[in-house]
Structure formats: structure tokens, C-alpha cells
Amino acid sequence: MTAPKLKVASLQAAYGDVQVLWDVTLDVMPGEMVCIIGSNGAGKTTLMRVISALLPAKAGTIQVDGVDLTGATSARMVEAGVAHVPEGRRLFSAMSVRDNLLMGAYLRPDKAGIAEDLEKVYALFPRLAERQRQDAGTLSGGEQQMCAVGRGLMARPSLLLIDELSLGLAPRMVELLADGLRRINKEGVAVLLVEQDVMNALELADRAFVVDRGRVTLSGRAAELADDPAIQDAYMGGLA
Ligand SMILES: Nc1ncnc2c1ncn2[C@@H]1O[C@H](COP(=O)(O)OP(=O)(O)O)[C@@H](O)[C@H]1O
Ligand SMILES: [Mg+2]
To answer: 59 phi and psi, to 5 degrees?
Structure first.
């Protein structure tokens, strides 16, 4: 049997005394696109940060390809194939697009592979190629998100974590990013996506997990959850 790309079991996390995640269990299979849905403050960003080891787990386990990496460093997670596109993008605004992209490859020794992957990112998002010498801070929000996704890809991941793909972006930009994500996923990269636009998320993803106040309250095939009246009422304003 294939091991899941990512398996998170009974995960708990806290900021000091304030517990934010309670017993979160989820998995992503190789090549799968999975989304996490939940209201503001539900713990989605915290979950992504614990998975990429930017925040320690209080309890529970994190496995990648069947290997227990609970307590590993964030560099180790990157080496294991997990790249994180953080909420708010966190680009270096006074550095060029190209240099921001290269930051994503900082752990890699293979110069030829890095050059190859840079060209792939430019092919995926041609706007980045046109603007490669421009400071990242001068890009539009959508272009910055392309740059952040591209930086994640420069680690040559097998699992891409994306925290808020479309938040605050123009619809045309969201389309370009969603198309890019589909292509990345088609090429075999598994994706764990946090997305506030629930319709968009359920259209993109194979499966979804609903997180509410730090717990997984519902999960299933994305197409089925999109038809679930409880999801429509809670997250789509009943308009779906
Ligand atoms: N650095 C932090 N220190 C203390 N509390 C935090 C911190 N980051 C987030 N929280 C709290 O943890 C909860 C979950 O936040 P977060 O994971 O950002 O949720 P989401 O991404 O789903 O909006 C919220 O109550 C938030 O206020
Ligand atoms: Mg968040």
C-alpha cells in the first residue's frame, strides 16, 4: 500500500497556555490536492506552521512518506519535500523577483537543477519572467502570490502547503493562480491548500477537511462537501 504523502495524527498545538489545535488528524495522498476550510481564527495557519515545523507540536505525530518527522527542523521538512507558501506571502520586497525565487532553493546544491526549475516557474507564470529583475515589492498582489508559489516550487517539493491562495486578489489573478496550481498538481506535486473562498477551494481540490475551533469537524470528497447544505450555510452564505 502507498504511504500517504502527509499524515498528521492527533495533532495538538498551543501558543503558551492557549491551545489552538486539538486532536487534528488528516492525510494527503501522493499527487492529491486537499483543501482546508474554516473560519477566521479556526487554526488553519497554525496547522500549516506546525506541519512545516515553524511551530512545535504539543502532541501528536507528523509523517511524510511514512517516515515520522515529528519534532524535525523546518530545514528537514523542506528536504523531505515539504514547501510552505505562507499566509501574507512574506517576500523580500527590496529583492528582485528572481532572487526571491532563488531563496526557495537555498538548501539545494544542484545548480543545473535550480536553473531548470527557475525556467519552469517562469513558464508557469510568464509574468514573473517579464518582471524577474523588478523588486518584489513593486509587484501587484497577484504577482506577489505567483512569486511566493514559485519560491515554494524552487525547493522542488513533492508537497506544497499553501496558506490562503486567493485572499484579497483580483478574480483574474485568482484564475491564473488556480490554473498554475492545477498544472503543478497534474505534474505530480501534492497540494495542501488553505483557502477562504470555499467554492474555489472545493472546485480545485480532490478532498477537503473542515476545521472549526482547532478541530476537524467534517471531511470528505470535495465534490460531496460542495453539495452539503451544512457547508453551504456555514461557509458559502447559503448561495451555492
Ligand atoms: N503568534 C500567536 N500567538 C498567540 N496566539 C495566536 C498566534 N497566532 C495565532 N494565534 C491564535 O490562534 C488561533 C488560530 O489562529 P490561526 O491559526 O491564525 O487561524 P486561521 O489561520 O484559521 O485564521 C486564533 O485564536 C489566533 O488568535
Ligand atoms: Mg490563517
So the answer is: -160, 165
